Amino acid sequence: MRKVLTYGTFDLLHKGHILLLERAAALGDHLTVALSTDEFNAVKGKKAYTPWEDRKLILEALSCVDEVIPENDWDQKIRDVQKYDIDVFVMGDDWEGKFDFLKEYCQVVYLPRTEGISTSKIKEDLKQIKAEVDKISKKIEEDIEREF
Q1: Are 26 and 6 in contact, with CB atoms under 8 Å apart?
Q2: 123 labelled catalytic
Q3: Fewest CB within 10 A of the end CB: N or C in the chain?
Q4: Are the C-beta atoms of residues 25 and 4 closer than 8 Å to each other?
Q5: pLDDT per residue over 68-86, tens digit each?
Q6: Nearest-5° Cα angle at 70, 64 to 74
Q7: In angstroms, rounded to a whole number, what is the distance separating the alpha carbons of residues 127 and 118?
Q8: What is the rounded average pLDDT of the residues 47-74?
Q9: Can you name the residues that pair with 67 across neighbouring β-strands?
Q10: Does the pTM exceed 0.85?
Q11: Residue 83, helix vs strand vs coil
């Protein structure tokens, strides 16, 4: 059995995530996803909108994902590759070269990201929408105060 491993936060699951996971799964027979915990995201200076348990549940529901494990720290990758007997380590090409140290233990593949979509973009779009809603709400409140 050819085992594949990838890592990520997978917050606000979108088309880019699905395509990456499907392409990763196609490289072997079993896909393990190491999912960044909320605590580890805090160490990285990130905050997921969706809690770890919910992100885990969503990933486990995907037919291309066989197993979800926690990612707790930067240094666990070699341990995970060895512990889970991994043949292929996969990441998006925005990480190109960063995990080449794993080539001593398994094949390392960097897959192209999906153009035009990212969790960061979704969060930025939502932030802009919230700013517009806040602006409209403030105007409505001011109009109401003037009326009464």
Answers
A1: no
A2: no
A3: C
A4: yes
A5: 999 999 999 999 999 999 9
A6: 115
A7: 14
A8: 97
A9: 32
A10: no
A11: helix
7: left (phi over 0), alpha (psi -120 to 50) or beta: beta
Segment holding 113, helix H or strand E: none
Q: Give the pLDDT mean for 26-39.
A: 98
d(CA 50, CA 123): 12
Residue in the structure block whose two tokens are 């709400």: 137
Amino acid at 97: G
The residues near 1 (Cβ < 8 Å, ≥ 6 apart) are 28, 29, 30
Taking the chain, what is the end-to-end CA distance rounded to the nearest angstrom?
A: 73
Among the listed residues 15, 44, 47, 98, the single catalytic one is: 44
Q: What are phi and psi of 19, to 5 degrees?
A: -65, -40
Which amino acid, one-letter code, is at 45? Answer: G
Question: Of 3, 15, 46, 123, which residue is the catalytic one?
Answer: 46
> Is-catalytic flag, 44?
yes
Read off the tokens for 100.
Answer: 């080449």
Residue 127 burial by Cβ neighbours in a 10 Å radius (0-12, 13-18, 19+): exposed
| Residues 6 or more apart whose Cβ sits within 8 Å of residue 50 | 11, 12, 58
